[in-house]
Amino acid sequence: MGIEKTVSELAEILGVSRQAMNNRVKSLPEEFVEKNDKGVTVVNRAGLVKLEEIYKATIFEDEPISEEVKQRELMEILVDEKNAEIVRLYDQLKTKDQQIAEKDEQLRVKDVQISEKDKQLDQQQQLTLKAMADKETLKLELDQAKAEVEETQKKGFFARLLGK
């Protein structure tokens, strides 16, 4: 697991009260704090480094650490960070997939609406064409009726009377 220190050990090393150290440990992010086999709260290596930064003190002076252990702990920290990033990106992808599915459904609905509008437009064009043809027919009939009236008016009184 690496190096871990209890609240009491840290209070003694840093020269602060156990209560003050306990409050400080409680304010640390969860990834820096763990429970050991006995159920006691301990601060892991990354948390100890953070505490060293906060208190501007060295906690590891009396404990030499091999380069291999340092490298392994650094790798563990990096792997944990990368795993957290992978989970975040995976969640983001799931959200994007859901948004794309919603957009696909919206596009499908729009396609149906466009198809319906095309049908309505086609029907309107057919009705307009029929109305234009009816208008033309009526115009021809009107012209024909006018011609008959004019022709009848041109005939003289006796021709009209005798029906010739």
Task: Characterise this structure.
- It is rod-shaped, with a radius of gyration of 47 Å.
- The protein is built from five helices and three strands, in the order E-H-H-E-E-H-H-H.
- Helix content is 75%, strand content 5%.
- It is mostly helical.
- It has helices spanning 7-14, 18-27, 45-55, 67-154, 157-162, and strands at 5-6, 33-35, 41-43.
- A hairpin with a 5-residue loop joins strand 2 (33-35) and strand 3 (41-43).
**Sequence stretches where pLDDT stays below 50 over 5 or more residues:** none
Radius of gyration: 47 Å
N to C succession of SSEs: EHHEEHHH
Reading side by side through the largest sheet, how are the strands ordered?
1-3-2
How many DSSP E strands?
A: 3
Principal-axes shape call: rod-shaped
Query: Biggest sheet, open or closed, and with what strands and sense?
Result: 3 strands, antiparallel
Kindly state the mean pLDDT as a whole number? 86
**Number of contiguous helices:** 5
